[in-house]
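Following up on my earlier thread - several people asked me to post the actual chain instead of describing it. Fair enough. Here it is, all 131 residues.
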Amino acid sequence: MTTVHRVACSQSERVVWVCEELEPPHTLMPYDREARTHDALSEYRHLHPMVVAPVVIDEPLVLVALVPDRATQIFERGRAHRDNLYICDIHNLRVVEGRRFADASIVAQLHWNGALRRDLEVARAELLRSN
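Reply from S.P.:
Thanks for posting it. Predicted structure:
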C-alpha cells in the first residue's frame, strides 16, 4: 500500500487528488505546520532532506507506470498544478521549472533502484486485486 506523507498547505494536494480519482490502495499521513513560522513540523522534516511535500514515490511518473491507461489525465493534472503555482504567483517560473526538472531527475534515478522496482510490482499487484 502506498503511504502519502503530506504537509498542510503544500503541493501535496495534487497527490491526494490523484489518489482520490484513481483509488489505489493508499494511506494519507497528514502533518501540520508550525504556527509561528509556517515551517513543516520536525516530525515531517526527517522524511525528506529538502523538506518538500509530498513525500511519496508514487508521483505522476510512477503512477503512470502503474496505471498507464490514465497517463494523459495524470500528466495533465500535474501540469495544471505546476502552472498554477506560477500563475497564482506562489513561485516564480524559475522555481517551478527547476522543481519539475528536479522531480523528473529523482524519479529517473529511482527507476534504477531495485527496491523501487520491487515496490512497483507489489503496488501493481495490489491495483490489479482492487479492480
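The mean pLDDT is 70. That should answer part of your original question.
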